[in-house]
Amino acid sequence: MNTKGATTSSAGGTDGASDSSSAAKRNSKKPKYSRFTQQELPACKPILTPGWVITTFIFVGVIFIPIGLASLFASERVVEIVYRYDEGCIPTNYSDQKLAYIQNSTTNKTCTRSLIVPKQMKRPVYVYYQLDNFYQNHRRYVKSRSDKQLRSRASESDTSTCDPEGTTPDNSPIVPCGLIAWSLFNDTYGFLVNNKTLKVSKRNIAWKSDQEHKFGSDVYPKNFQSGGLIGGAKLNASIPLSEQADLIVWMRTAAFPTFRKLYGKIEKDLEANENVTVVIQNNYNTYSFGGKKKLVLSTTSWIGGKNDFLGVAYLTVGGLCLFLAISFILVYVVKPRPLGDPSFLSWNRNPSGV
Amino acid sequence: MASKRPLLIPSPRTPNSQDLPSIPLYSDLVNPQSQSANFKSFSPMDSNGNNPIENSPIPPNSTTLYSASQRSISSILSANSGGNSVREVNFSDVGTKPVRYGSRGTESEAFSMSQKEINDEDARLIYINDPGKTNERFEFSGNSIKTAKYSILTFLPRNLFEQFHRVAYIYFLVIAILNQLPQLAVFGRGASILPLAFVLLVTAVKDAYEDFRRHRSDRIENNRLAWVLANDQFQQKKWKDIRVGEILKISANDTLPCDIVLLSTSDPTGVAYVQTINLDGESNLKTRYAKQETLSKLPEKEKITGLIKCEKPNRNIYGFQANMEIDGKRVSLGPSNIILRGCELKNTASAIGVAVYAGRETKAMLNNSGAPSKRSRLETRMNREIIYLSVFLIALCTVVSACAAVWLRRHRDELDYLPYYRKKDFSEGKEDSYNYYGWGMEIFFTFLMSVIVFQIMIPISLYISMELVRVGQAYFMIRDSRLYDEASNSKFQCRALNINEDLGQITYVFSDKTGTLTENKMEFQCASIWGVDYSGRKANLQGEQLGYSVQVDGQVLRPKMKVKVDPELLLLSRSGKDTQEGKHVHDFFLALAACNTIVPLVTDTSDPAVRLVDYQGESPDEQALAYAAAAYGFMLIERTSGHIIIDVQGERTRFNVLGLHEFDSDRKRMSVILGFPDKSVKVFVKGADTSMLSVIDKSLNLNIIRATEAHLQMYSTIGLRTLVIGMRELNSSEFEQWHFSFEAASTSLIGRAALLRKVASNIEKNLSILGASGIEDKLQQGVPEAIESLRMAGMKVWVLTGDKQETAISIGYSSKLLTSKMTQIIINSGSRESCRRSLEDAMVMSKKLMTVSGVTHDTGRSSGGAATLALIIDGTSLVYILDSELEEQLFQLASKCSVVLCCRVAPLQKAGIVALIKNRTDDMTLAIGDGANDVSMIQMADVGIGISGQEGRQAVMASDFAMGQFRFLVPLLLVHGHWNYQRMGYMILYNFYRNAVFVFVLFWYVLFTCFSLTTAITEWSSMLYSIIYTSLPTIVVGILDKDLSRRTLLNYPQLYGSGHRHESYNLKLFWVTMMDTVWQSAVIFFVPLFAYWKSPIDGSSIGDLWTLAVVILVNLHLAMDVMRWTWITHAAIWGSIIATCICVLVIDAIPSLPGYWAIFHIGKTRLFWLCLLGILIAGLIPRFVVKFLNQYYNPRDIHIAREAEKFGNLRELGGAEIEMNPILDPSRETTR
């Protein structure tokens, strides 16, 4: 946009009265001239001209369409295996009493399934569990934690924000306290390829920043899951919280009610049509609220996981911009209006026509 | 809406018509007496007049001829308290022969006496020189003043109390308190109080600073020193320690520390001159008098005791009522015996007085009212939209709580065990309910919590932003060098800070004439003497300004003002009175120099040899005439009560002033009776032409009268104010007869004014005409152009003046208010019936004209301005019309007229006319005036503007804005008003939009969190959003953005119409903005939702994405609308975005918050940046497209002008081929 300097400063009021004595000048209340006080700072005054608008739209279209294509392409290349097991892993004799099954500690919860790899999956292959209809962003849930307690042993008893999982009945603090930790996900997965165990690495699944600064290396689980109601996983009391990667991942509460959490990474390529046997320990109770549980194996790309939305959105916006650009060009050719044409001024138009 | 301030000050120009009987002082006129002798003996005849003792060339004679009876009369009735009511005159030849003449504006003895006694309960008793006793019974306030509102201790509670007068603040306070309840704690305690605390803090700091400055000035004021009598000598004492009842001594040029009653002055007659410029702005000197009973008392030597009983403190600076008991006598005191705090003693060596009112009870402090408070139209309209926003808010909260209700109902069986809800607490052995209050209460709490979360739907920051923007706008208006008046050295003043934007929507301008359209600096232009017209313009146009001067005792005396002279007349006047012509000229100028009440003041200049004669007087006309006479060699050098000294062509001549009939509005003339050195006595009369021509002897010099009449006609058509001068020589019998009746009249106890008037009429007759003078009340510079601009801008200019019809019309023509094309409707009726008839006739006529012009409109406006109507109406007709059913008719008629001139209107009628329009239309009214008579009008109008001109500061004190010249109205309205309106309108809309976008983003998220009001955006970001993230750019844009340059706006006043059409702020714009808001918030929310659905994204990370997206989007939105990018705008907008990023980074670097390090993680992913880019582009596209299409295919005037400004074809705007129509059609389109 072209910069047009401010109007000339000659009218700045220094004209005349310049020959008055210095005393008069001192007494004069005349505001001192400056471009700032006279609101005449040099300025750029952009105007939406058709040329500008059309250029902008073409520019946006030209940028957006390739980005859209690239992200669609990337998303297509991501290989993703999603397997819902919450229904399937209930033995048939319990299919009417899922809740009883899951709450019964004596039932066998192991569930073995095999998955076919549709395409080659380059390592690392990420293992996620996906929960649907689980409101990890519920206010009561989100607030029920104590970041102080997680960080240092000194504030172990700082459980005031953790109700109803703050303390045991005899008032000793639960570490880690709060509903979030209490409801820690406790299904486990084992993978076999060609009867060989696939190692699932838990390294680097949690944020390094969390491990280093948010979860204390001197804070050990205490009184955890010892109350009347067991919400989920138990923690090894001899491992400090900073090493409890699953807990750390879980404590980063998800933004939406349908979410995935990283379970681990498989540092090995999976070939197409390979048969992966999954051994699932189906412990976690989502049956009481109709939540779904899914196991997800996925590779990654430069835009993350498999999601076509962004590509489509970019293509749509880019296309729309090009369309607008073309239609503006057409309209401009058909019915141009000279810029600054005085005949359009209201006082020049026929008043009866207004 | 109208401010209800009282009219504090009655016009000083309204003379007190009660010229009441005074004392018979002299029965023996022939007995010579001297002034000094009078004084020495302290005779009762010594009055309050000027005592010319030092000028008297005659040695004092005997003073023995006073009769005891006179003594007693006058001692009972005391001296005249009034202004110049009593003066003594010396007959230089015969000896002193005191004469008194009628007075003006006096409160004479009988008057005060006749008034009802001041009740003891209503009075304050002051024991002179006994402050202890005075303050014994009732502690009067001390003299320390306190304009500061707060002390260190009271600052916090009082300031908070005052701030919480605003309803919006109460709202936010209630919300902050709600948030403190554990059940409702949505935000942390600190975060929830932050916004309110910030706003309160900013305001408190501002208030504290202002108060600090007041404290400082108070301290300076209170610690000034004054001489106070203590232990029989005057000692210096701080002002704040002065107590009521103490005796003070004031020296020349000192400022009065409190209101004092004068006891004596250095002047033997007890006169003191004061300048009241600090009080009412009038720069001429006023005279105050000490009572003669106290005159001679010297407080150091003898102890003065006495009792003053005076009224309770009040704010009337022109009224005072009291009496004083001294030496067993009781004398009454009036306004001329009191000097008020803030006045300065001038031309008087010292004055002694007793403090009666001190500190905050002084009249000056009581009048120290704050700036007026009005509310702007835009703000009123804004309140309507605030109500819409509240409805939105309630709707959103209802939706959330209803959904929550449904959800809770449907999951009521699961609530105990839901891992993310857990209604029950199992930790103890027994199963407690955990934070669950039952279904109904949960819903209620959800509602309240959603109010807390969505609170900024009502923009709290808008109020503080508007205040800051107005301060900024005011700063630029004040600093505008084009609104600075060189002549009066006055800057533009912004006295009301909350109606800046109203200046952009004015439709009616009500203007005073004298002093507003004109300079109120009278200039002698031409004279018609003995039937000969001497108009300077005829002879030479070089406009020679002659400074006449005379030498006296080696010193040069020179009049302060130079006057343009006619060389021919100057020659004549110098030629002496040998020729017949010369004699007439001599008499004429002698009349000008003598027949007035001007007091010449001789002041020193930097050059010791030169002294300036400054003519002080109440009437600018008289001043002009006196200066003119001086320029022609008749310089009035000295005036005392008894004589005047006029330097006639270098020769000092002393005239005795034998009598003076002052001007009154019935006679419309004044006369002076002069005793000449040759013992002849002449009466000189000057007055308005109508009144003078009736008293001129028509039998003499008929052709000269004719010629003068013709000249008068000519003068008044060119807009000059005319006065006719006549004279008559009195023979001794006539004089004696007059003198007798004059004495009788002036000493009469009842009906003195009427008697004096009669005496005057008897002597003012059979005059021979001397000539006429034409005084120009010059139009202020640029007035016609200004009126033209205002009219082109679609404003209706009404002139309300006290002048007579002819003068008003001629000024109307010269100021281009009236043009020859206009059809004039003149309503000049004496009764209600005739008013009705003339109104009806006028309506019929206007309808006829409207249809005619309507036809021409249809055939195209270019055929010419057609017939426009001008209504001229006078005050007497208005008396019948206003406040009656005719009012409506007048309004109908007036709204059809493009010009309305009201002549001969009283101050209250002016307000009535403004109210007539204000109450019947939605249009904004503006009143502009300079005098006390305009105060009511200024206060009544939506915007009141005071001209800081010649007539004091009362108009300025009552005004919202004050400036030096009428023509500044054009830049003020067309430029600053336009800018302010456009800026403020945009800022309000933008603030609504900005907060609503944020609230909607929060709202969408709530729908995905089980309606539990979780916010992904951290509470700190939501609180900082309207404080740091987005507030500065809107304030900067609100202060600095300019749609059009000053030059364009001034060249094309029609652009002002955008304010009339409410283009910057209307309901349609509001709804369009709200729709845009919904779209943008949806884009901001749903793009990340879909992009991150089923992904491991955590709430804090996506919250950061939303925070950045919403802040950058609203700032880009603003950037898109900025019309003028200066470096400040750049800094504000980009700086805000950067500041937001920094804040987000800082918040995410705090390990104790759940979102620790989130932004650093998400910032490393490309998806984040793509989402952000996508949001920004997709969010802005609709607005961009609509904006472009609107500007391109439905351009407003402003758009076209901007384009023209940019591409340089500005000159073609309304160029030659397309005529500009100066007067807008009344039926123009309005968007409401």
Automatic annotation (TrEMBL), chain A:
<keyword id="KW-1133">Transmembrane helix</keyword>
<feature type="transmembrane region" description="Helical">
    <location>
        <begin position="52"/>
        <end position="74"/>
    </location>
</feature>
<dbReference type="GO" id="GO:0005783">
    <property type="term" value="C:endoplasmic reticulum"/>
</dbReference>
<feature type="transmembrane region" description="Helical">
    <location>
        <begin position="312"/>
        <end position="334"/>
    </location>
</feature>
<dbReference type="GO" id="GO:0005886">
    <property type="term" value="C:plasma membrane"/>
</dbReference>
<dbReference type="InterPro" id="IPR005045">
    <property type="entry name" value="CDC50/LEM3_fam"/>
</dbReference>
<feature type="compositionally biased region" description="Low complexity">
    <location>
        <begin position="1"/>
        <end position="25"/>
    </location>
</feature>
<feature type="region of interest" description="Disordered">
    <location>
        <begin position="1"/>
        <end position="34"/>
    </location>
</feature>
<feature type="compositionally biased region" description="Basic and acidic residues">
    <location>
        <begin position="145"/>
        <end position="156"/>
    </location>
</feature>
<dbReference type="GO" id="GO:0005794">
    <property type="term" value="C:Golgi apparatus"/>
</dbReference>
<keyword id="KW-0472">Membrane</keyword>
<comment type="similarity">
    <text>Belongs to the CDC50/LEM3 family.</text>
</comment>
<feature type="region of interest" description="Disordered">
    <location>
        <begin position="145"/>
        <end position="169"/>
    </location>
</feature>
<dbReference type="Pfam" id="PF03381">
    <property type="entry name" value="CDC50"/>
</dbReference>
<keyword id="KW-0812">Transmembrane</keyword>
<protein>
    <recommendedName>
        <fullName>ALA-interacting subunit</fullName>
    </recommendedName>
</protein>
UniProtKB/TrEMBL annotation, chain B:
<feature type="binding site">
    <location>
        <position position="801"/>
    </location>
    <ligand>
        <name>ATP</name>
    </ligand>
</feature>
<feature type="binding site">
    <location>
        <position position="934"/>
    </location>
    <ligand>
        <name>Mg(2+)</name>
    </ligand>
</feature>
<keyword id="KW-1278">Translocase</keyword>
<feature type="transmembrane region" description="Helical">
    <location>
        <begin position="1125"/>
        <end position="1147"/>
    </location>
</feature>
<dbReference type="Pfam" id="PF16209">
    <property type="entry name" value="PhoLip_ATPase_N"/>
</dbReference>
<dbReference type="GO" id="GO:0016887">
    <property type="term" value="F:ATP hydrolysis activity"/>
</dbReference>
<dbReference type="Pfam" id="PF16212">
    <property type="entry name" value="PhoLip_ATPase_C"/>
</dbReference>
<dbReference type="InterPro" id="IPR023298">
    <property type="entry name" value="ATPase_P-typ_TM_dom_sf"/>
</dbReference>
<feature type="binding site">
    <location>
        <position position="721"/>
    </location>
    <ligand>
        <name>ATP</name>
    </ligand>
</feature>
<keyword id="KW-0472">Membrane</keyword>
<feature type="binding site">
    <location>
        <position position="514"/>
    </location>
    <ligand>
        <name>ATP</name>
    </ligand>
</feature>
<feature type="binding site">
    <location>
        <position position="622"/>
    </location>
    <ligand>
        <name>ATP</name>
    </ligand>
</feature>
<feature type="binding site">
    <location>
        <position position="802"/>
    </location>
    <ligand>
        <name>ATP</name>
    </ligand>
</feature>
<feature type="active site" description="4-aspartylphosphate intermediate">
    <location>
        <position position="512"/>
    </location>
</feature>
<feature type="binding site">
    <location>
        <position position="910"/>
    </location>
    <ligand>
        <name>ATP</name>
    </ligand>
</feature>
<dbReference type="InterPro" id="IPR023214">
    <property type="entry name" value="HAD_sf"/>
</dbReference>
<dbReference type="InterPro" id="IPR036412">
    <property type="entry name" value="HAD-like_sf"/>
</dbReference>
<feature type="transmembrane region" description="Helical">
    <location>
        <begin position="1023"/>
        <end position="1040"/>
    </location>
</feature>
<feature type="binding site">
    <location>
        <position position="803"/>
    </location>
    <ligand>
        <name>ATP</name>
    </ligand>
</feature>
<dbReference type="InterPro" id="IPR001757">
    <property type="entry name" value="P_typ_ATPase"/>
</dbReference>
<dbReference type="InterPro" id="IPR006539">
    <property type="entry name" value="P-type_ATPase_IV"/>
</dbReference>
<comment type="similarity">
    <text>Belongs to the cation transport ATPase (P-type) (TC 3.A.3) family. Type IV subfamily.</text>
</comment>
